[in-house]
Amino acid sequence: MESRQRVGLIVGVAVLVVFGLGWGVWRLGTRFAELALQSQQKAEVAANAADSMPVKKGRLFSNDEVYTFLAAAKKAELIKDPLQRCLAYPDPPNSHWSAAAVHAYCQYRTQAVMSFADIQTLIQNGQAAELDQRMAKILNAQMTQPAARGLLDRTFEQDFDGSFDIRPLLDAWKRDSPNSAFALAASGYAYEKMAYKARGAGYMSETPQSNVESMDRLLQLADTDLQQAVALNPHITPAYGAMIEAGGLSLGDVYLASAKKHALANNPADLSIYGYLLWQAQPKWGGSIKEMRDITAMAQAHAAENPLLMLELSKAPSYEKLKDCDCHTAEQLAEYPTIFDQVSSSKQLADAGTAAESSHHLELSVVYFSEALRFDPGLSDERMHRIYDLNNFDESQWAVDEATRMLQAAPNDTDLIKARAYSYESLNDYPHAVQDMQAALVINPGDGNELMALGSMYANSMHDWDKAWETDNRIVKMYPNEPYGWILRSEIQQQQPRAGLRETIDYFAAHFDNSPQAHKLLLEMRAALALQPKKSLGGASVAKSMPAG
Q1: Closest CA to 487 of 468, 461, 462
Q2: 363 DSSP assignment
Q3: Beta-carbon contacts of residue 111 (< 8 Å; ≥ 6 apart)
Q4: What is the set of domains in the chain, with CATH numbers?
Q5: Global confidence as pTM
Q6: Residues of the chain with pLDDT under 70
């Protein structure tokens, strides 16, 4: 496979960094910087040092292990049935995922959930009683059928997301069925989600007072409905989850403790409840690693009854070892396979993939992104990130096919177009790569990153000097005060060779020779000039070398 670290690209990126340019996201061969997610807010870590629990030593995945894993994953992804596809998927190399937990989580992620459209139709047609009966069947299935674990929780999570748009419908349900525990629970659950959105994701000190007041008002409405709901039916698990979250947001520790007590007394093996408890126990909300470990231990006491609870094993060590960790050493990165030695949620696995990718350890990220997609195929961002990863393990055709499928649903998504272009380039299919790059530039003509990538490919991969020169003219014209166009220009003049290298060097020296790194690059240009045959030393003046306009 052609190396991703092409010399021309490396030189260009190095100089961009040196000059502190505003490109922000340049390709650097792998182009992962272009897709990097913003870092999460820094949270206190030192306060929990005393609670630190050692994690057994692990090791990074070998290339052979990743190749074997991807071969099995690719085969599994061809299976049409969602449950069978999930079950056929390989586990991470050297992991010890519980077969029972994997089976339970595959069922959980692929079970049919009642749609909001169905709920809306029943309420609008005056069939609130029918809706109550269907909700009762869903709850009964959750409590009695292994294949339906968490079904009511997922129904609430999917259908009652806290949007203001659904408020009139929930109010109509309550009016038509005033003694319905499900109507009250759905209403209270949605109010609490609205309160969470009103509060925002920042620290309380950063939250506007108007947001806090809106949150408190909505939480009071939520509490009224939720208390009535669990009084009518103490097994409606989503209601307790909303109450636990409400306690953590504003209603206080006493309220939270009461919600926790009643939730576990009536539903001791529910995954969603433990998920909310672990959320509020995080150090950033005033909890501790020890509290998270204690809750995890409580959950594992019921894992035989509900294997889904094994998903919670990774949360405390993941928070402790990986949150806000700028992990780059082999020892730090080797903790990933130990922390995720047992099956984890799709979100945890996706977060692990993102963190590993940011450290440029693609042998980890491609595995964890794949596992996240195993359980949640709808993770489009993670799927696009994996497209880039696949190219590093000789799976560029798979990457092209993935991007093509995604583009059928979003034909003007330039990120996907560029991902496919990179995959075509990795296959040495330059005509298709050029076609995609040009398509991306039609949609976004000001994308300097893609224009530079196109120019670099023309020069360093295709040796199409005329097109490289034409593209470089566009770069210099668009960004006259940035050095990359002049660096690419010097590369073309050196490699073709083409006249005018001396003038390019003089221009670079006059405008960009302002740091030791830039000066080193300038010396390399001059050395290349000295090695050129004399017949190519002359050339157009810098005025002719500059593009018109």
Answers
A1: 468
A2: H
A3: 147, 148, 151, 154
A4: 7-30+392-545 (1.25.40.10), 97-280 (1.25.40)
A5: 0.83
A6: 1-58, 201-202, 325, 327-328, 534-549
